[in-house]
Amino acid sequence: MRVRIIFNLKNKGASVPFHHQYLLAQLIKGVILRGGKQDYVNFSHYNFSAIKGQTKISRNGLHYFSSKVTLVFSSPSKEFNDYFLTSLFELPKVDVGNLILTPEHVEREYVPEFGDQSKFICISPLVLTTPSFDNEESKKFISPEDDQFSDLLYESLMARMEKYGKYTAEQIASFYKFQLVPDKHYLKKIKEKQKKFARIYPVYDQDVKFEVRGYTLPFTLYADPLVQEFVFTSGLGIFTHKGFGMVDLANVDPVLRAENYKFSSTGIKQTTR
């Protein structure tokens, strides 16, 4: 289930780094732990976007000038989504970088009917490989037109689907048809304008800072409808629970895909203020 969390921005003009997924990952982990449910301490089947709003760029990062900003948050587990939202909305405010935010309301996105192919855009970078402390392989550039690009994403996706535990071994085995095809027109246009679609990003894992290469591009995914839906709700690639690999459907008006959502309190330890 995908939701849009709308926050009031208390200090217009405040900033966050250009890439602030690691700040959001720390906040989200803190909110999860605050809820007090042990089953979710190591839960990693969720995904989230960067903060969306009206921005201006400076040397300090992104400055937000809209009165409201949005965070897209998603998990295949409705129970976990509601647990997270309940814990979040108990907080009077949250800080992300220099932003002071107060949670206001939530909208739920409709999950579309998926077929065997879908065109997606990346709303956070795709990471292909897991970094290690003494190896820079995760920063290596791999062309999206190379079969290895699609193969690496397939391997990590199947591992996450199997770990999630809601699919049978027979289903996992049946998901062998998988191909990610990048938008060649986009890649050509980016190259002509000498812009980048692949950059190095920081990520923190077990308090260790790593650097990984992330890719942001439109692509068509050929896969089983159940795989398409899992990608839509859980992300694609490595470190999805740290804000990487969130995708959205291309050429679809997001305003028409959402409704107000009233989540139910579930599994939260009651706290006194």
What does this structure look like?
The chain is of the alpha+beta class. The protein folds into two domains: 2-111 and 254-260, Alpha-Beta Plaits (2-Layer Sandwich); 117-249, Alpha-Beta Plaits, CATH 3.30.70.1900. The protein has six helices and 16 strands. The protein has helices at residues 21-35, 78-89, 147-164, 169-174, 184-192, 225-234, and strands at residues 2-9, 15-16, 47-48, 55-58, 61-64, 68-74, 94-96, 99-109, 117-122, 126-127, 178-182, 198-205, 208-215, 219-223, 247-249, 258-260. The strands form four sheets. Strands 1, 3, 6, 7, 8 and 16 form a six-stranded antiparallel sheet that branches. It has a four-stranded antiparallel sheet with strand order 11-14-9-15. A three-stranded antiparallel sheet has the order 2-5-4, with no helix packed on it. Helix 1 packs across helix 2. The longest helix is centred in the middle third of the chain and has 18 residues, at 147-164. It is globular.
